[in-house]
Design goal:
The protein is of the alpha+beta class. The protein has 2 domains: about 5-215, Homing endonucleases (Endonuclease I-creI, Roll); about 235-320, no CATH class. Helices cover about 55% and strands about 15% of the residues. The chain contains 12 helices and 8 strands. It has helices spanning about 5-10, 20-35, 55-65, 95-105, 110-115, 135-150, 170-180, 200-210, 215-265, 275-285, 290-295, 305-320; strands at about 35-40, 45-50, 70-80, 85-95, 150, 160-165, 185-190, 195-200. The strands form 2 sheets. Strands 1-2-4-3 form a 4-stranded antiparallel β-sheet. A 4-stranded antiparallel β-sheet has the order 5-6-8-7. Strand 7 and strand 8 (about 195-200) form a beta hairpin. The N and C termini lie far apart (about 75 Å).
């Protein structure tokens, strides 16, 4: 099961809130995944079509608990080019009085005046009066995500991404404003014929999951973030250590070449005592770091003293190569 599905599974169980919160959540689902159809007698029916069973479950229980109405449910197999057969759910409220009660509670009753007889009514907009309370704002965002949201798997994706796809720009702006009221700076963008509300920051996505009341998913995200940051830190330290080892090895190789050249030209015995000792120590311990190399000297020499003597050996080798130290 994908991370998005696990989030929706968790959200689908939050159907036992106050009635006003249930109405807010139903409104979001209808606005983003619902259709209102007119019958020949002018009365309405409500449909929600989805291939996500968690949305189907949530809408069914919300309507039943809030309006004592049982949706008709029909399952059908849909042929998908990429993934083969998949199951789709169609939930219907076909009893006109029940549909009207739901539409009135969701503040959609005004569609009678705006009805287009040649098309089904989609892309419904929400009345701000439904989300006056913070709890209703949370419920509305929860319903919106159930209906049209997705979030990247934090343990697999290279970046964090949460989005809700809206048919109407006004709904996208409405959702973005709701997120902003909770201190989550959501953005919107156009994609084909839709407007998308999205978040890309890990903290913001974690906050959004908390706002929508998905604490288990939020904890999973946080754990994945901690693990990713830990791995990144370890990788940085390993890379840094590897780079330092590489520099040390390269420097030691040059030091040994310089010392061997000095030995071949003028001999190490011609060097002052301190330089001769350091030259012989480096030949004997080619991989030893400077501080440990200095500890082998008699008397011991600090790291800066070792570095100074090796630099003098390098300068002498360079002079010998240029013919100045003969």
């Amino acid at each position: 099961m994908s991370f998005s599905s696990r989030v929706k599974e968790e959200l689908s169980g939050k159907t036992d809130g106050a009635r006003h919160c249930r109405i807010a959540e139903i409104t979001a689902i209808l606005a983003l995944a619902g259709q209102v159809c007119a019958r020949e007698d002018g009365r309405f029916e409500i449909y929600v079509c989805t291939d996500n069973r968690w949305l189907a479950k949530a809408f069914f229980y919300l309507v039943r608990r809030c309006f004592s109405v049982a949706c008709e449910i029909r399952m059908q197999s849909v042929r998908a080019r990429e993934s083969g057969n998949r199951t789709s759910w169609i939930l219907a409220v076909r009893e006109p009085e029940a549909a009207l009660r739901i539409l009135q509670a969701a503040k959609f009753a005004q569609i009678e005046q705006d009805w287009d007889e040649d098309a089904e009514q989609e892309g419904l907009t929400a009345d701000p009066v439904l989300v006056r309370n913070p709890c209703c704002k949370r419920a509305f965002l929860r319903g919106a995500f159930l209906a049209a949201g997705s979030v990247s798997d934090p343990s697999a994706a290279k970046s964090y991404h949460l989005e809700i796809v809206c048919q109407e720009p006004v709904m996208a702006e409405f959702l973005a404003d709701l997120f902003t009221e909770f201190g989550i700076p959501a953005k919107t963008t156009e994609r084909r014929n839709y407007t998308v509300v999205y978040l890309k920051d890990g903290d913001d996505i974690s906050g959004a999951l908390g706002v929508m009341d998905a604490p288990v998913a939020m904890m999973e995200l946080e754990n994945a973030r901690i693990e990713r940051e830990f791995r990144a830190k370890v990788n940085r330290e390993v890379n840094c250590e590897a780079a330092n080892i590489g520099k040390t090895v390269t420097a030691a190789e040059k030091q040994i070449r310089d010392i061997l050249y000095i030995d071949e030209t003028v001999g190490l015995k011609s060097l002052p005592g301190g330089l001769e000792q350091m030259a012989r120590l480096r030949l004997e311990y080619p991989d030893l770091p400077l501080q440990e190399l200095g500890a082998k000297a008699e008397p011991p020499v600090g790291k800066s003293g070792v570095n100074h003597r090796l630099r003098r050996l390098a300068e002498l080798a360079e002079k010998l190569r240029s013919g100045e130290g003969g």
